[in-house]
Amino acid sequence: MQKRKVLTEKRRILLKTEHRAYNKRLRQRYLHSAQLTFDDYVDYVDGYYRVSIQTQSVKRYSIPKVRETEEIPSLSTFKESATGVDWLKHKEKLEISKQYTVVPAYNKGPYMVVPVDELHTAGKKV
Hints:
Layout: H1 9-28, H2 38-46, H3 87-97, E1 100-104, E2 111-115
Antiparallel strand pairs: 1-2
């Protein structure tokens, strides 16, 4: 890299006003943490500023443990899921709902539930 230039008083005053405007723009965009000090701003304008990269540690995934005791059952041993619906009941509801569909009623009215076998007359004046 080339040798750094010495800041003249005139350039320092100019850079201070630019620095204030730069930080103001960042605050208007709610980027308060991205504001620079004056020395960092001078380095940024001259091309010497390097942003320090902060790394975060990677969290390892651990397999959930299933409790062996009978008096305190683990969540995975319940027959019901997190929604509180038994899987067999949920399957039954899906089978029943496959027999019906939702269509708009005649003349842009409200929606109605129609059996699949009557779908050819749905929304029509019969």
